[in-house]
Amino acid sequence: MRQAGFCGRQKGRYRVQTTDSNHDHPIVPNRLAEAPTPTAPNQIWVADITYIETQEGWLYLAGVLDLYSRKIVGWSMSEWIDTPLVVAALNMALQHRQPTAQLLFHSDRGVQYASADFRAALAQAQLLSSMRRKGNCYDNAAMESFWSTLKIELVYRRDFASHSQAQSAIFDYIEACYNRQRLHRALDFLSPNQFETKNI
Question: pTM for the complete prediction?
Answer without folding.
Answer: 0.86
